[in-house]
Write a structure and sequence with these properties.
DUF922; about 180 residues; DUF922 domain-containing protein; 5-stranded antiparallel β-sheet; alpha+beta
Length: about 180
């Protein structure tokens, strides 16, 4: 059996090295991770790391796409999880609901990209040799798209300071989640 594991990390648009932790099967926090769920919104209590006083940002959301791909009996299968890393996420201002909403949108946008990746992985088929030859490139491209859109979101919304643009992004992200419902895990 061939087993692949990718853990793609994004911290407000910046690659952040992190160790792979088990992804929770339920919607609760396990090993400092919260699996994305429409019912489970982030709270400031979820941001467990100490704020970085040298970082100019007011909060950091560490979000991951955890990708497990296996090949057993010549059948390709995969699992993609969108997770929030509580012990790597922090805030300097845990009183701002506007800031919390911005951080939630980063997590929601990560779920959009998890669904887009699941959609792409379906197209690889179930034959191991065929899927195997395309897997790394597919995941690499998905990560690049995810990072680019996170950066675009921060730039357009001025890191959440532009309320009108933030509201537009919130609507767009909600619409995309609905469009990609078929690819929810």
């Amino acid at each position: 059996m061939i087993f692949y594991n990718f853990l793609l990390s994004l911290v407000l648009g910046y690659l952040w090295p992190t160790a792979a932790l088990p992804v929770s099967e339920d919607k609760n926090t396990v090993s400092g991770q919260i699996t994305w769920s429409p019912e489970r919104r982030l709270t400031w209590d979820d941001f467990k790391a100490e704020p970085d006083s040298l970082n100019p940002h007011h909060a950091i959301t560490a979000a991951n796409l955890a990708v497990d791909a296996t090949c057993a009996s010549n059948k390709f299968s995969y699992r993609v999880k969108c997770v929030f890393l509580a012990t790597e996420s922090w805030s300097k201002n845990k009183m701002s609901e506007k800031l919390l909403q911005h951080e939630q949108l980063h997590f929601d946008l990560t779920e959009v990209h998890a669904r887009l990746l699941r959609k792409k992985l379906v197209t690889l088929g179930t034959s191991c040799p065929e899927a195997n030859s395309k897997l790394s490139e597919t995941v690499k491209n998905a990560f690049a798209d995810w990072k680019a859109e996170q950066d675009k979101f921060d730039e357009a919304s001025q890191h959440g300071l532009d309320a009108r643009v933030s509201a537009e992004w919130a609507k767009t992200i909600a619409h995309r989640l609905q469009q990609l419902e078929k690819f929810r895990s």
